[in-house]
Design goal:
Cytochrome-c3 Hydrogenase, chain B, 14 strands, disordered C terminus
Amino acid sequence: MQNRLKLINPSLKSSNKLPKDKMHNHKNMDINLKNISKIEGHTHLDVKVKDGKVQYCKLKISENKRFFTQAVIGLPYQQVPTTMSRICGTCSSAHTLCSIEAIEKALKLDISEQTFKLRNLLAYAGHLRDHAMHLYFFCLPDIFKKDSVFDFKGKEKEYIHDSLHIKEAGNFLSTIVGGRAVHPPNAVIGGFTKFPTAQEIRESIKKLRDARERILKIIEIFYNDNSSFIRKTNYVALINNDYSFLKGYIKTALGTSIFEEQYGEHLQRVVLPYSTATAFKWESKDYMVGALARMNLNKQNLHTDTLKNTFKYVKIFPSDSVFHNNLAQAIEMLHEVDSSIEILRELEDSIEQEAPIKPKIKAGTGIGVVEAPRGTLYYHLDLNNKGIITHANLCIPTQQNIIHLEKDIAKYVEQLIAQKKSKETISFEIEKMIRAYDPCMSCATHFLRINWS
């Protein structure tokens, strides 16, 4: 945790306050952000400005190749979910569930209603703890004009306790359903290997109810945040009638609606010569995925209890301000709690010890699509007639947002220069924008080292 919350920007280190802005006129500058640690590796950002206009903006992901798509080739299908969950510690449940869906589709395996409910709980638990970490530890210090949560004083410290209680509620739910807070071993092809007891379900409901009251406070805070950057764009998300994250159809803000299996007809992989990570476009244009996309496209299907308590906040959407991604995540936390409580109540006295359904082994192709915390996650897996993986292809949410993020940074820098903001303010605002995207980075609140020339 100490490394995740380490302050790197020396311009902010001594004051424990955000930079005070003065009128400046910087129309020619280079912005170089070096060694930004991420979950998948490291990132640099280079921005060149001439005559007040950004000449280029490049997010240079320099991560080491991890070869997960190659590692699963030759493995029996049963080993894929536990292997792919290791791609990410915070998003492990999403990778587990997406790979399971792809394999079950390839084998044409239908699961029980109870299994689907338990998988929804596992997805909600993962989103809940992930959003809590992002909003409280990475974003909230900016609103309180502090470097990090370690600088919180007085009543501000209550939010640290709130975050830990919310995260614990998510971890506990993941543990009783999936077997662990991360890398859940109980979720397997065809079902689950272990099930929560009635006592564990009641304890989980109690923790979620406690978290609910705390979440309402953080929603109000992000609603009152006046950070804003507006750019009309396209949004893409998996949509359904209950705002769950595992089934549905793919919808865009431009009106396109497609089946999950058709995603490859619309997504184009883009090789970035300056980055070790590829990017993606939707129908040859940049687009955005994540909580903001989900809220813009599907807010009417939030849980009824959530809508009752968040009516004035939800009215903001659809929004074209990237900073409202934080508010969308906060509202989603309440939805995840309300939806989880409803499912747990249904299962409390009726859960059955179902053995996983055994599929008939056959060759096939499966497409898995789920909403991970940061956006739509795609899995494409091919199996031979012995159930061995012969091909794997993934499309990660952060990869889908790379080009969109670069364009937003470029336009935002130009806007800040036109407003004659200081270099310190511009660098800080770039940090805030990247945080608002919530990319899958391992670093914490102040994670950018700025070199100005």
